[in-house]
Amino acid sequence: MKIPFDPRRRRAVVNPDGTMSIVEHLYELRTRILWSLLAIVLAAVVGFFWYNHSMLGLRPSGELLRGPYCELPESARAEITRTGECRLLATGVFDQFNLRVKVAFATGVLLACPVWLYQIWSFIVPALHRKEKRYTLAFVTMGGVLFLSGAILGYFMIANAFRFLLTVGNETQVTALQGADYFSFVLSVMAIFGVSFELPLFIIALNLVGVLPYAKLKKWRRGLLMSMFIVAAFISQSGDPLTMLVLGLALAVLLELSIQFCRIREKIKRRNAVGSDVFDGELDDEAASPAPSAPQPIGAGPGPAAGAVAHATPVAAPEKITRTSIPRSGFDDVL
User: Fold this and answer.
1) Widest CA span of the chain, in angstroms?
2) What number is the average pLDDT over the span 22-50?
């Protein structure tokens, strides 16, 4: 019997057979999204304060983000302030506040990545087996590390890109960047690098579910490696060849590592499955029940006792069904 959706709790109720309906999946997705947004908002409050205050021995986030621009030679950037201090240009009334809110929200997404990665994994977990659900901590940890590593790599690549893009013609002109455009560019590149570094985790998750086995990855390896450089050329906004090359190489290395992880995992799984005839209650969906190692001959098993057969209750004679009990129709000969 199917357990209905509980409107008081406003969450999905799992049926006795472990399945959920489409509506229950949608409510579960809504719950995961709300928890993720709440974590991002709370982290964004911290990011709003961190914008112009030092935290945990780190410089303010606004100062860190403008670092690639301020590290350029003075001949390559315009001096806006009288003291010669490096500043970006704001031309609108709300530019200062909007920029701080945007940086705070991006900081919240970065700091809350373990939470929303956990919510994503928790939404996928019902489709996994019990052994595969044990990878929750590893998934969240690796996802957070990869996202932060990609964002940090993107930050350092921006500095190299600026040295190439903003110093090519500094003998003729200087650059005076607006804060909104500059920070949008920096944050978008960091987000692209961070999300791109989640690719191996996505491949491993599909392999755990059984959608993407190692055989397909081995067959598609060359095309996937080539596609990593094509994707890097499209998503890198700086346009310089160094950034595209570094991002493509990083994605190719991560892709190969994920493929090798899938190969080792399936190899260990096959090795453990060979010669195992003990049912532990965790068979795969496509696996058959193991046959007993020593089949018993016919008649060797314990049968009913002789006394039980002798005192068995006789079965009543079946009731006779007459032809008059069947409705008359043109199919009487068939009935």
Assistant:
1) 113
2) 89
